Amino acid sequence: xKQLCTKSLLAAAMMVLTFxxxxxxxxxxxxxxxxxxxxVERALVxxxxxxxxxxxxxxxxxxxxxxxxxxxxxxxxxxxxxxxVSRWAQDTILLIDDMGNLLAKFSVPxxxxxxxxxxxxTTDGTNIYAGNNTAAIQVIDPGTVSxxxxxxxGGTVRSLTYDPTANSGAGGFxxxxxxxxxxxxxxxxxxxxxxxxxxxxxxxxxGSAFDNWTMNGPFLWVFDQGGAGGADLVQINTTTxxxxxxxxxxxxxxxxxxxxxxxxxxxxxxVRNSQLEMSGVLQGNDPTTPIDGLFxxxxxxxxxxxxxxxxxxxxxxxxxVTSHMVNVNIDKQNNDPVQLQIMDAAGKxxxxxxxxxxxxxxxxxGYDNGMYFVRVIYDGEVITDRFIKN
Length: 390
Prior knowledge:
- By secondary structure, the protein is mainly beta.
- It folds into 2 domains: 301 residues, Neuraminidase, CATH 2.120.10; 75 residues, Immunoglobulin-like (Sandwich).
- Helix content is 8%, strand content 44%.
- The strands form 7 sheets. A 5-stranded mixed sheet has the order 22-28-27-24-25, with no helix packed on it. It has a 4-stranded antiparallel sheet with strand order 1-20-19-18.
- A hairpin with a 7-residue loop joins strand 15 and strand 16.
């Protein structure tokens, strides 16, 4: 896997941009937030009650204005233990470490699209892919910080997320614009599936994240500006293509902490510090406190929206850290079939079989090092656990 060398390649290749824009694509406001349509200023949503907050624990809110010197941030991704955050109206990307410290500002030559820079980032673990408000997906080599190729698609790419399960495991991308269909394409841009506008019902989509971890999925999480909150994370089942009813208003917690009512920006899912985390940008939308915030939710708690159920200690993995063999112990007292799956940190399915056994020894020596998730489907329930390959 190619590695990003912050202190050498970026220092030599990056171009720091100091110019700024003072108006958004479709409306003028000090916050430089990019919105689908004009909106009115709203009062801050009250701090949620503790029992509700537990479902969406906020790991951090980093002030992008304080770090970068200007607003208008939108696209975001976590790669090689660092955040990339793009300014939608400028050819500038902020490089931030996992503690929220600004490491550098740089540009990717040729990334500047229609009306601005990248609106979204996603990754397959090797390359970073960008949607820049054109009918193409830009492929970025994070090692050389350059565009290596372009994938043409049939519509404007604003939201963009990598799906490792698409095209029979060959991978693909879900993309959309504010109020379009959500389209799944192959790695070459061929259409594989479509979630129509009439079906998903969203009118102001900005970011999206593919979720193959949450039980009963896979899902898409769409960061939508069109709801009452202006920054709603909406869960869509990619099989039924319908909203599941799980919606979270990011202004109800991140906005309050950020002292600013914001609108949806980019969003992505990733594994960090052994936790599944949803991160995104809440674009400043309040003229009195125009602050862009890079936020992170603990999705181990969010998975509890449909809490993993099953007998206590039903699934046991030993050892939890291994370089060779792992035993998946399923504590059942019958010969009924169990579907046993293993997914890597990107959500790609690397093992899938039906077993009748209690002790299932699996050779993982050929797997890449990293976090892996074990999912057992038995008697209508889904039980998950994890191990680390080193």
